[in-house]
Amino acid sequence: MSTGRAQALQSLVAQLQLEQLEKNLFRGTSTDIGAPAVFGGQVLGQALMAAARTVDGHAAHSLHGYFLRAGDKAAPIVYDVDRIRDGASFTTRRVVAIQHGEPIFHMSASFHRREAGVSHQCAMPEAPPPEDLTPRAGPRVRVEGPIEFRYVDPRDPVTAGPRPPHSQLWLRTADELPDDPLLHQAMLAYASDYSFMGVAMQPHGLAFQQPGVQGVSLDHAMWFHRDFRCDDWLLYDADSPSAEHARGFCRGALFDRAGRLVASVAQEGLIRVRR
């Protein structure tokens, strides 16, 4: 692991911790990863951390967020947490991310007190192990980033033609993380937004890097099923069953190396092609 990657991860961990301004107010900063605006995964991770900082004894099990405006990379983001409900089994929070006096993102998150119950899951799809694959940077991401990616079927996003709307990659943080389950959840929320919407572009031979292609995340939903570590390899299996009216829909499943389904993701994004 390079020094640059380790420093990038340390910086991201610090960003996710947030500064508490008041009982329900938190402030975060941004890192320029090469995207034109604040990276959506960063806002997801920070919003989850803000919500969780107001919850005791319950763990996050789902989040549903909407991206409202492009974030300013040079300005801090204030996260305003609304304590909607504190229940014996479930606790709900609503978070609004604010910049320059306007909301850029809002999210609802639900937290569940751990309890025993029925258990089943889908089978993990076949994929080569990460050791057999070459490390690559994600789209619009600097090589020395905090997350390591290994694509099962890499392609050149600029010159590649149409391909089926399916993607597999392994991911993990560039270094070991503290033993804090919330931090691992926030880190996975951050990483889950990398290259996700690009799956909906694949059948059309499009990519973020191509001139005239506009891709913007509209929403992002995530469910945490089982405990996991984001500093150990996770297989991200994603597909896009539909694109219509300039919107592409993607869904993903994340498995650990033991084959356990640890999280599920869904997202719709805006895809415009300006000829």
Number of strands: 14
* Distance between the ends: 41 Å
Main sheet attributes: strand count, strand direction, barrel closure: 14 strands, antiparallel
Helical proportion, percent range? 10-25%
Mean pLDDT, to the nearest integer, reads 93
Number of helices: 4
Q: Tell me, briefly, the overall form.
A: globular
Query: How much strand?
Result: 35-45%
N to C succession of SSEs: HEEHEEEEEEEHHEEEEE
The secondary structure category is alpha+beta
Radius of gyration, CA atoms, in whole angstroms: 18 Å
Low-confidence parts: none
Descriptive keywords:
single chain; 275 residues; alpha+beta; 14-stranded antiparallel β-sheet; 14 strands; 16% helix; 39% strand; globular
Outline of this structure?
With 275 residues, this protein is an alpha+beta fold. Helices cover 16% and strands 39% of the residues.
Report on the structure:
The protein has 275 residues and is α+β, with helices and mostly antiparallel strands. It contains 4 helices and 14 strands. Strands 1, 2, 3, 4, 5, 6, 7, 8, 9, 10, 11, 12, 13 and 14 form a 14-stranded antiparallel sheet that branches. Helix 2 (40-52) packs antiparallel against helix 3 (181-192). The longest helix is centred in the first third of the chain and has 15 residues, at 3-17. The model has no long low-confidence stretch (mean pLDDT 93).
